[in-house]
Write a structure and sequence with these properties.
By secondary structure, the protein is α/β, with parallel strands linked by helices. The protein has two domains: 48 residues; 256 residues, 2-enoyl-CoA Hydratase, Chain A, domain 1 (Alpha-Beta Complex), CATH 3.90.226. The protein contains 14 helices and eight strands. Strands 1, 2, 3, 4, 5, 6, 7 and 8 form an eight-stranded mixed β-sheet that branches. Helix 4 crosses helix 13, helix 6 packs parallel to helix 8 and helix 10 crosses helix 11. The longest helix is centred in the N-terminal third of the chain and has 19 residues.
């Protein structure tokens, strides 16, 4: 049973009607092919109308869609082989972060990504994609290991944010994120990042210091969630609703289109009509092509050039000019 978001209800009604007609046609001698064809045409037009005019809040909902592919889904579709590593060699393993080494078309890559989990049991196990310090330290352990062999790094970003619990703070959550930012900026291997869902706060930033960073069309990337922003700015007797969330999403400029306009990301990866969950294989194919093209652009750069370009890329974020009117 497919999950539909609130603004997808008209699509749900049409799809259910088409399914009913198909079943009726199969169970009887009545030819309903023309009616089904007309409804399919109407459905296609409706999808184009809805998904061509999405608001930032609607894109946020698609980025969080429960059927949206996660890191391990893309690993199985993109990598020819993959070996996962576990543990940070300090405290333990963090299932919210997946790390390992694999091959794409005979080229070795290190992969680090957030993993949210699909079922309730798995989501609890993965902590809803909210990493602890050991998750980021595990990621850094892999990156430092593969740096010795000049293996490029891929990061897949999909988290509401780093876990803010007491245990995580006691084990140095802020320090782990800050160390990742510093060490990734100095890593002598190419780093390619893809925001596949939510890019939330420092939890996302800890895997985002990249030579090239991309976003799926309906992903988001922001310093805070719309709900968190709304709760801070427009708290009304402890009641903040969808209207405030939508306003916050608009003001945060968190969509892929916004981030591309700010030159924070390099490219937007198109998604199938309706979102990545509508055709995961096609989405994975596009991500794979983007990764391989980015690697081809970076593979011949010497370490000094790679570090210089990465530094300049980061320094250019947030540039501004003072204009004095005479």
């Amino acid at each position: 049973m497919r999950f539909y978001l609130d603004f997808e209800k008209p699509i749900q009604e049409l799809e259910l009607k088409i399914e009913e007609l198909k079943k009726l046609s199969d169970d009887s001698d009545i030819d309903l092919s023309q009616e089904i064809k007309k409804l399919n045409k109407k459905l296609k037009d409706l999808k184009v109308e809805i998904f061509s005019n999405l608001t930032p809040w609607q894109r946020t909902q698609i980025a969080r869609h429960p059927e949206r592919p996660y890191t391990l889904d893309y690993v199985s579709m993109i990598f020819d082989e993959f070996i996962e590593i576990h543990g940070d060699r300090r405290f333990g393993d963090d299932p919210a972060v997946v790390a390992g080494i694999g091959k794409i078309e005979k080229q070795s890559f290190a992969l680090v990504g957030h993993q949210k989990g699909r079922t309730i049991k798995e989501r609890v196990y993965r902590n809803f994609g909210q990493a602890h310090p050991e998750g980021y330290r595990k990621a850094l352990r892999l990156m430092k290991l593969t740096e010795r062999f000049c293996i490029p790094v891929i990061t897949m970003i999909d988290t509401p944010g780093a876990y803010p619990g007491i245990g995580a703070e006691e084990r140095g959550q802020a320090e782990a994120i800050a160390t990742n930012l510093m060490e990734m900026s100095l890593l002598k291997s190419p780093i390619i990042g893809v925001v596949i869902g939510e890019g939330g706060s420092g939890g996302a930033l800890a895997l985002s210091v990249c030579d090239k960073i991309f976003m799926l069309e309906n992903s988001i990337y922001s310093v805070i969630s719309p709900e968190g922003c709304a709760a801070i700015l427009w708290k009304k007797n402890s009641e903040v609703g969808v209207e405030e969330y939508a306003k916050a999403a608009e003001e945060l400029k968190l969509t892929a289109q916004d981030l591309k306009n700010f030159n924070i990301i390099d490219e937007i990866i198109p998604e199938p009509l309706g979102g990545a969950h509508r055709d995961p294989q096609e989405t994975a194919k596009k991500i794979k092509n983007v990764i391989l093209n980015a690697f081809n652009d970076l593979k011949n750069k010497k370490a000094e050039e790679l570090l210089r370009d990465r530094y300049n890329k980061i320094r250019q974020i947030g540039n501004f000019w003072n204009t004095i009117k005479k």
